[in-house]
C-alpha cells in the first residue's frame, strides 16, 4: 500500500524516531541519502558544479549535511545560505559547522546575479521543508525565479520549497512561487501534496527515503495513492453460463435540449465497460436510436422506472423544473446511483435535494464533481477548493454521506469516514469536454456489475486516467484527444487487467 502522511503525522513519526536515537542521527542519514541521489544525477558529467540552497531549520540542515558529503568527491560544491545561525536548531547548527569545515564555497542566496555567474550541473533545494507557512518573497523569490529558469536537474529535499505538503498548492496562492523540481527526495514517507493540485508539476520524480526509521514509529495513515492492488479483488473473469441479465442495467439520466451528447458518451462507456443493458432516459425528446451504438435503448425519463437499475444522473441534464423533478425521483430510488454535472448543481442549489442525498446513506451514492461543482456544493469558491483539495473532498464525502470523486490534477477519492485516496494516473489530455461523462458512465457500469462501491470508484478513476496515459504514449494526445477516443481504450485496459489478474 502506498501510504501518504500529513505534515502532522510526519512530525509525530519523526518525534518517535528521535526519542530512540542519538541526536543528529536523522540529519546525517538525510544528508547522506541526498548526497547519494545527487551523485547519481550528475553521473557521467565532466565538470560538475553543484549549487545547494540551504534555508533555516532542519531542512536547511539536511542540505548542509549533503554539502559536507558531496565536498568529499571531485566536484565543486557551493552553498547559498539563507539562515540566521543564532536561531538555528542544534542539529542544523552542527551541520553548518561541518559544511564550513569542508571544501564548500558559500554564496549569498539573496544575490541571484552572483548565483548566475556559474553554470550549474545540479541544484539542491533545501530552502524550506514541510514546515513552511509563508510565501516566498523579495530577493529570495528572485532566487527561486532564477532556479526555475535553469535546465539542469533540480533536487528538492523532502518537498519543493514553496509547496504545501498537505494540499499540493503553492503557498500564498495565485501569483506566488515555488521551486520547480525535477526530482524530490521525500523523507520518512510520501506526502499528499506531491500528488494533487500543483504537486506533480513542482515535485518531478519522487523518491522515498525512510531514514531507516523503525516500523513501530509509524502511525496509521489516512491517505494513500490509488493503485491496481486496491481494487484487484473485484477483477473476475466472466463465467460461461451467464447472460445480459447477469451484468446489470444502467440508466443514464440527462439529455436536455442541445446537450444530448453527454448522456450518450456516458451510456457508450457503460456499454463498453460491460453493463448487460444500457438505457438513456432523456428529459427532453429522445432520439429513436444511437446510430453508432444502436444497442443503447432510448427512453423518455418520465416513463422509466428507476428501482431496478444503477442510475447515472446528471450528464446534459440541464436545470429545468422537469430536470429537477426527474432528479428528485432518481434520488428516491433505492439502488446505486452516480451523480454528476447538472445534477450536482441542482443539489447545491436546493436543500431539499441535499437532504434526499444525505438520506441515501444506507445505499450507494457516488458524486463526481469538478472543482467548480464542488465549490457550489460546499458554498465556497473554486480557489478555496483548489487550495486544499484533500480537505474539500473529505468535506464533500462527509456532508453528503457519499463517496466523493473530486476531479482534477490528482483526483481525490474521499469516503465518509475521512479516508482519502489520491489518483496518480491521467494527464492533461483529459482536460476536454465529455471526459467527465465517460468517468460517470464507467462508475455506473462497475456498480451495475456488482462491484463494491469503494473498488468501483477507485477502479473507474484509475482506469480513466490510465487509458488516457496509454493513448498519449501512442501519440494520440495530449492535444486534441476526445472523450470518445477514451472509451474503447478503457475497454481494452479493463479486459487486459482482468486477464492479468486471472493468471
Describe the structure.
- It is a single chain.
- The chain has helices spanning 7-19, 25-41, 57-70, 90-100, 112-115, 138-147, 199-203, 261-272, 321-332, 341-349, 351-358, 371-377, 382-387, 389-400, 435-448, 453-473, 483-502, and strands at 3-4, 49-54, 76-81, 105-108, 122-126, 154-157, 183-187, 205-209, 223-225, 249-254, 277-282, 297-300, 310-313, 337-339, 365-367, 403-406, 412-414, 420-422.
- It has 503 residues and is of the alpha/beta class.
- The protein has an eleven-stranded mixed sheet with strand order 1-9-18-17-16-15-14-13-10-11-12, sandwiched between helices. A seven-stranded parallel sheet has the order 4-3-2-5-6-7-8.
- A hairpin with a 5-residue loop joins β16 (403-406) and β17.
- The relative contact order is 0.10.
Gross morphology: elongated
**Helical amount among residues, as a percent range?**
25-40%
Derived structural class:
alpha/beta
- In terms of DSSP E residues, the strand content is 15-25%
Major sheet strand order: 1-9-18-17-16-15-14-13-10-11-12
**Number of contiguous helices:** 17
Provide the CATH topology of the largest domain: UDP-N-acetylmuramoyl-L-alanine:D-glutamate ligase
- Give me the count of strands: 18
Mind telling me the CATH superfamily name of the largest domain?
Answer: Ribokinase
Domain count: 2
Looking at the overall shape, the CATH architecture of the largest domain is 3-Layer(aba) Sandwich
Catalytic activity: (6R)-NADHX = (6S)-NADHX; (6R)-NADPHX = (6S)-NADPHX; (6S)-NADPHX + ADP = AMP + phosphate + NADPH + H(+); (6S)-NADHX + ADP = AMP + phosphate + NADH + H(+)
Binding site for AMP: 407-411, 436
Cofactor: K(+); Mg(2+)
InterPro entries: CARKD, Nnr, Ribokinase-like, YjeF_N_dom, YjeF_N_dom_sf
Amino acid at each position: 500500500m502506498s501510504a501518504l502522511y500529513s505534515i502532522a503525522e510526519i512530525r509525530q513519526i519523526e518525534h518517535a524516531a528521535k526519542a530512540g536515537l542519538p541526536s543528529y542521527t536523522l540529519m546525517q542519514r538525510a544528508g547522506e541519502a541526498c548526497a547519494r541521489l545527487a551523485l547519481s544525477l550528475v553521473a557521467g558529467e565532466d565538470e560538475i558544479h553543484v549549487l545547494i540552497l540551504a534555508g533555516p531549520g532542519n531542512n536547511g540542515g539536511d542540505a548542509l549535511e549533503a554539502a559536507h558529503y558531496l565536498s568529499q568527491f571531485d566536484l565543486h560544491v557551493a552553498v547559498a545560505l539563507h539562515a540566521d545561525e543564532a536561531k538555528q536548531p542544534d542539529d542544523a547548527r552542527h551541520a553548518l559547522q561541518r559544511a564550513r569545515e569542508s571544501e564548500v564555497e558559500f554564496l549569498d542566496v539573496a544575490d541571484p546575479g552572483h548565483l548566475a555567474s556559474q553554470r550549474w550541473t545540479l541544484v539542491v533545494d533545501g530552502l524550506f521543508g514541510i514546515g513552511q507557512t509563508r510565501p516566498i518573497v523579495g530577493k529570495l523569490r528572485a532566487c527561486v525565479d532564477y532556479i526555475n529558469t535553469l535546465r539542469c536537474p533540480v533536487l528538492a529535499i523532502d518537498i519543493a520549497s514553496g509547496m504545501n505538503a498537505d494540499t499540493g498548492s503553492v503557498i500564498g496562492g495565485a501569483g506566488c512561487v515555488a521551486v520547480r523540481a525535477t526530482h524530490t527526495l521525500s523523507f520518512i514517507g510520501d506526502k499528499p501534496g506531491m500528488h494533487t493540485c500543483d504537486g506533480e508539476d513542482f515535485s518531478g520524480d519522487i523518491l522515498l527515503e525512510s531514514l531507516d526509521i523503525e516500523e513501530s514509529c509509524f502511525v496509521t495513515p489516512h491517505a494513500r495513492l490509488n493503485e491496481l492492488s486496491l481494487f484487484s479483488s473485484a477483477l473476475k473473469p466472466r463465467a460461461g453460463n451467464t447472460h445480459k441479465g447477469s451484468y446489470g442495467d444502467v440508466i443514464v439520466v440527462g439529455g436536455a435540449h442541445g446537450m444530448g451528447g453527454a448522456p450518450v458518451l456516458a451510456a457508450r462507456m457503460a456499454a463498453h465497460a460491460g453493463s448487460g443493458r444500457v438505457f438513456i432516459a432523456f428529459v427532453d425528446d429522445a432520439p429513436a436510436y444511437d446510430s453508432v451504438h444502436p444497442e443503447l435503448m432510448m427512453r423518455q425519463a418520465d416513463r422509466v422506472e428507476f428501482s431496478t437499475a444503477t442510475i447515472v444522473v446528471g450528464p446534459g441534464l440541464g436545470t429545468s423544473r422537469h430536470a429537477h423533478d426527474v432528479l428528485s425521483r432518481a434520488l428516491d430510488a433505492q439502488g446505486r446511483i452516480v451523480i454528476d454535472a447538472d445534477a450536482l448543481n441542482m443539489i447545491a442549489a436546493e436543500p431539499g435535494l441535499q437532504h434526499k442525498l444525505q438520506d441515501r446513506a444506507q445505499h450507494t451514492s457516488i458524486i463526481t464533481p469538478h472543482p467548480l461543482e464542488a465549490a457550489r456544493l460546499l458554498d465556497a469558491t473554486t480557489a478555496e477548493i483548489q487550495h486544499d483539495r484533500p480537505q474539500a473532498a473529505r468535506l464533500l464525502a462527509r456532508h453528503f454521506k457519499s463517496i466523493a470523486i473530486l476531479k482534477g490534477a490528482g483526483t481525490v477519492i474521499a469516503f465518509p469516514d475521512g479516508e482519502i485516496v489520491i489518483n496518480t494516473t491521467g494527464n492533461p489530455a483529459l482536460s476536454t469536454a465529455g471526459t467527465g461523462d465517460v468517468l460517470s458512465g464507467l462508475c455506473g457500469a462497475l456498480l451495475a456489475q456488482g462491484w463494491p462501491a469503494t473498488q468501483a470508484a477507485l477502479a473507474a478513476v484509475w482506469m480513466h486516467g490510465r487509458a488516457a496515459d496509454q493513448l498519449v504514449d501512442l501519440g494520440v494526445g495530449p492535444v486534441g484527444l476526445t472523450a470518445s477516443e477514451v472509451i474503447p481504450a478503457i475497454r481494452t485496459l479493463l479486459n487486459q487487467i482482468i486477464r492479468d489478474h486471472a493468471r
